[in-house]
Amino acid sequence: MDIKSQISRIVRHALLRLHPSVDGLGDPRITFPRKKAHGDYAAVCFPLAAKVGQRPNEFTEALARELESEEFFLEVTPAGGFLNFRIKPSAICRMAVEAVLAEGSQYGSSKRHASECVMVEYSSPNTNKPLHVGHVRNNLLGMSLCHLLEAVGYRVAPTCLVNDRGIHICKSMVAYGRFAKGQTPATTGEKGDHLVGRLYVEFEMAVRKEFRTWATGPGQEDLDAWVSEHRAELDIAVASARRKAEETGRKPPAVEDVKIGRFYDAKGQEFFASKSGLGEEARDLLRRWEAGDPEVVELWKTMNGWVYEGFDETYKLLGSRFEKVYYESETYLLGNSVVDEGLEKGIFYRKPDGSVWIDFDDPKLGSKLLRRSDGTSVYITQDLGTAIEKFRGFDLDLSVYVVGAEQIYHFQVLFEILRRLGYPWAKDGLYHMAYGMVYLPEGKMKSREGTVVDADDLIAELTARAREKSLSGDLRVAREEIDKTAHQIAMGSLKFFLLSVTPSRDMNFNPAEPISLQGDTGPSVQYAIARINSILEKAGALVEKPADLGSLDRPEEVELAKLLLDFPRSVEKAAHHRNPALICQALLALKDAFSKFHHNVRVLAGKGEPVDGRPELASARIALCQATREVLIKGLALLGIEAPARM
RNA sequence: GCGCCUGUAGCUCAGUAGGAUAGAGCAACGGACUUCUAAUCCGUAGGCCGUAGGUUCGAAUCCUACCAGGCGUGCCA
């Protein structure tokens, strides 16, 4: 039992003695006091005092007297509605070190959800473009969530749903035929996903050009009409483009370009669907693919193959791992029978044009299309099939989707449909872990326009910087280890950076300001581990000597111990709230406490020499260091971060 | 229009299920390496917690309205 629970239990017994007749008084919340001078732990008593009908100070004074004789506390002080506790410093240190070293790498884990199985779907890329920082955030959240859920006992199945079919990949295929005949990753030296992504961008550019030709020719009337209708909006757009150009010192765009650009934003999709020759080509490829045209399928396979090779490389860098991969080309038909089933049950209905719909009771959900009038399936249809498939293939208690917040509505609808269809697990076995966007200073990233921060580039740049920094000082790392170490540090900085923001929030990322290696960062946590390793190496035989844990009573040691004791709570909470950022916070607090300890408290007088000539004290401090290292490594592992032995 | 999310230091973010005098890091300024690695430590400065009301002994946190930004919103995924 952790220390806060112990305190809570002792207080509960005292309360039962003091107020035996009050039912459901509850426990006071045990926290760290805001100021260390107040004590080691504090109980917040305002709500309980109110229930008993006493003034807060009256209540806590009586409670303090009742707890006076408790041996567990050194001191119990009432302070208004707070009750502050002081505990013998060496006792805290002893508890912490013994608890951590007894459990080792299992410290912080629990069996709370043992015998439960959860599937976590994450990453889920489209095969028409390489991964960017937004995808990286997704991958890291997914992996970290897997680790957190495992830590509280779940059996976890990480999965990925690859969107390998549809109009987007057909666009790249059209571009391949038109602009890149004969090119392969081998001939261009490009990574496969980058090659296909480049073709996708080229296709989009070509459509824009096609649109421009139309808008300044046969579509001129439409353009003029639209422009006069959106006069005010356009004036603002032109003005803001000018302002932006002035700020950045670039040439302002021509008014004509802004007009056509806006017109494209508004009508581009419509144009693509009805007037674009390129659009017709792409749709034709999609039709031929669905009909199984061998030539099209062959090209599709080849290009997807290039993309997978590229993804595999990036996944390897990130450490992404999947137990099961679903491909939409295999699952996209699964939903159709579900739609038929819903029609039979009368949950869905058919409109005269043949399209299939569902109306929801909740007006916020409105109604939703489930099958197009031409009989083809839509996005949500295949998701219905895949959701059911997951529960068929695995004995799941929970199915998690790590997907961006822009799809909150989509998942509300998906889950509600599955509930209406009567699947028992749909009641509380589905969870959408929605996370926020990663914004660049200039706004949202757009793959189509090529304004993205590429994952591979970012990793490469960080690795180069970590390597340079390693080489710049005393080289602690063995030469042959430097590549691995630089990679670990680079990934430590990237992962920690992206995971330290609360998942549900949007976050900003400025590529011009590189991710820091100093301050509240992953590398600073890794560094603390490297320093501990260094001490342990130099300690030699002292590591094995008997330790007198009772001699640990310095404030720096107690602070460290308190945080070690609090770590399991952080894990529990992070798993419960599905929020890895809570682990980041716990690690930073721990790293801070260790740095202060390390700065002010010596372990060794020299190599193998105990401080103050006291081996039992040195060994105790060594044990505290070992416990700290254990927890730091565990915490980083929960984030999917490795710690290099030396830095 | 409607719905959901977000407004905390110059920047990036915390703020522990309503609790004590709102905290870090970066950037700025000033200190600390003959010392277990300076990816560290110590200090200074920086805040009408978007605005206005309300609930409460107590509000950054809960409620209402407004302002600003983002996302979504019937045949895209």
Using the CA coordinates, give the radius of gyration. 30 Å
What is the tally of helical segments? 23
The end-to-end distance, rounded to whole angstroms, is 36 Å
Number of strand segments: 16
Structural class: alpha/beta
- How are the strands of the biggest sheet laid out side by side? 7-6-5-11-12
Mean pLDDT: 91
The biggest beta sheet is recorded as: 5 strands, parallel
What is the molecular shape?
Answer: globular
Strand content: 5-15%
Unreliable spans: none
Helix content: 55-70%
Overview of this protein structure:
The protein is of the alpha/beta class and 647 residues long. Among the domains are: 3-87, Arginyl tRNA synthetase N-terminal domain (Gyrase A, domain 2, 2-Layer Sandwich), CATH 3.30.1360; 167-291, no CATH class. The protein has 23 helices and 16 strands. The strands form five sheets. It has a five-stranded parallel β-sheet with strand order 7-6-5-11-12, sandwiched between helices. The protein has a four-stranded antiparallel β-sheet with strand order 1-2-4-3, covered by helices on one side. The chain starts with a helix and ends in a 9-residue tail after the last helix. The structure holds one RNA strand of 77 nucleotides.
Record keyword descriptors for this entry.
647 residues, alpha/beta, Gyrase A, domain 2, five-stranded parallel beta sheet, four-stranded antiparallel beta sheet, 23 helices, 16 strands, RNA-binding
